[in-house]
Fold this protein.
Amino acid sequence: MRIGPEHVAQYAAEGCTRIEGAFDARWVERLLAAIERCRAAFATGCPPRLVGSVGPRNPPSIHRTGEGGIQLRNCMSTDTTFLDWLRSSPAAELVGRITGARSVRFWMDATFIKEAADPGTATPWHNDVCTFPFQGEQQPSLWVALTDVGPEDAPLLTLAGSNHDRWRYHSPLSRQDVRLPGYRPWDELLARATAPDADIRVWTARAGDALLIHPRTIHASRAAGRGRRRVAFTTRWLGSDVVWAPDALSVHVAGLSDHPAMVPGAPPPDALFPVLWQA
């Protein structure tokens, strides 16, 4: 894996950069196998067992998006392969060097499997920070392709430069009976992404490539083409400028939002979010 100044510059300017060959074929194979084990456990009607922990022990869950779309959340602590990847792979260093963070902590994971041409498997336009209970610029998502992603394989789409927005958008996933300063209507986000002159980037990838996505970057994905299959393993991270700052529109995180160690305005505590990489 090579991280160069071009990755840092593109991430800062556009809100997304691709790191080719970030993870070798052995990591790709091991992660795919762990994902299938997690998926198989859910198929039995019982969530997979927790086998360890790095960061908050959020309960694993499975969600279906259209016919053929599956999202697995919080599987990191259910398989030793995931935990080994977190500790031993270059993931944390990649995040730190591109974002400029002095230290990096893991937050959560989500795996996206798209296996059909159903429009319901497409990911709608959004950005991540709108529902985050943290504040800070160093909260990226690391999106790892575990299958080749061509134009028909549900590639990720980003609105270049949207990482420079200085506000949040009022997500439809948040409470709608509350209005807070600093939030813009969700319709404005959708209008920006679908405007005729929108600077949309289409991110194809090879298995093992990674995209680092700024938390403010507006992004989406296409549905997979007929007979195609796309698997992406994503993780979210917290850098050294991040502090705990929930409000009435941020998501409630089970086991975290009410934890006495989470202090508004303070960085995440080491006991819950151990540092995985330092500059």
About this structure: The chain has one domain: 5-262. The two ends are 17 Å apart (CA to CA). The chain has a mean pLDDT of 94.
